[in-house]
Design a protein that fits this description.
Elements: E1 2-7, E2 10-15, E3 29-33, H1 47-51, E4 53-61, E5 65-74, E6 77-88
Parallel strand pairs: 3-4
Antiparallel strand pairs: 1-2, 4-5, 5-6
Length: 97
Amino acid sequence: MGYFKEEEGKRWRIVHGDGSEGFEETAPYDRIFSTAGIVDIHSFDISSLEKQLSPAGRILLAQNHGPLLEYRKVNGKLEETAKYGDMSFVPLIKGTA
């Protein structure tokens, strides 16, 4: 899924995927921000992203239409902690990149 490319002395990591399951290879992350909107937030499985989050990390989860949702780990469990505005994002289509 990911590979390194070296160009002019700089090293780049290129990851190709839809992002719905994160990128476990370089976890844990302090922040995870989905930039494509979840069409049905109630059926989206956030567990793979939760596993990649650092203990004090946050997930910002975009919906196709609706508020941006913030999740944080509280006592080791992921909880929705805030909602931001009413926004529209391009839809996340699982399996496409």
